């Protein structure tokens, strides 16, 4: 007779790791607060970063636990290499970067979509790659990329064969859609997204044109990342 696996073998290690990390964050903050005044003054920004990181980590733990309770994440997923790499990426982001809500939200969504194994399976390397790419985007770049993606879902874009391909029109549209307001500000992030292969380059010798179809300048890679993130809402 096949021996059944005891439930304790599937103890949620991820939740335990997060709890332990939160405890260490708190102890670290307490240690700074009790140090000499000189050290304390130099560590003010670090304290704030740790507090923010702790808040985001608590939010993530709550969502992870809910996904597990609802059966959207298999018990043995936490032992996969994909999960370990993605968890390390998230923890590194919270510990070493200056965490903000926009970046955290994007990384969290990629993580949980991967864990649900509905869009990709546990053997895929795409979630890890998506997290690394998004972690290295600025908040403005995320706004521009998301604005382009939202345009591709609008009826006028889907039903119009010939769309204005002028760079000026595209800049104005994305400035409005992203709430960045200024065309020049969109251009700053546009150039970086082109370098990162998430936006197609401009056309013509004077760079006055863009290629609006099929994804309003988003590359196939950029489009798939946006679609992957969006699937979190369906999973949620």
- Largest beta-sheet details: none
Tally of alpha and pi helices: 11
Proportion in helices: 55-70%
Task: Kindly state the number of beta strands.
Answer: 0
Portion in strands: under 5%
| Domain module count | 2
Order of helices and strands: HHHHHHHHHHH
Instruction: Catalogue the unreliable spans.
Output: 1-9
| Bulk shape | globular
Average pLDDT rating? 86
Radius of gyration: 21 Å
The end-to-end distance, rounded to whole angstroms, is 39 Å
By helix and strand content, what is the structural category?
mainly alpha
Question: What does this protein look like?
Answer:
With 236 residues, the protein is mainly α. It folds into two domains: 123 residues, no CATH class; 93 residues, Arc Repressor Mutant, subunit A (Orthogonal Bundle), CATH 1.10.10. Helices cover 66% and strands 0% of the residues. It contains eleven helices and no strands. Helix 1 runs antiparallel to helix 3, helix 4 packs antiparallel against helix 5 and helix 7 crosses helix 10. The N terminus is likely disordered.
Quick rundown:
By secondary structure, this protein is an all-alpha fold.
What's the topology here?
Blueprint: H1 13-33, H2 37-42, H3 44-69, H4 81-96, H5 101-116, H6 126-135, H7 139-152, H8 155-159, H9 167-178, H10 183-195, H11 220-235
Keywords:
about 240 residues; mainly alpha; Arc Repressor Mutant, subunit A; 2 domains; 11 helices
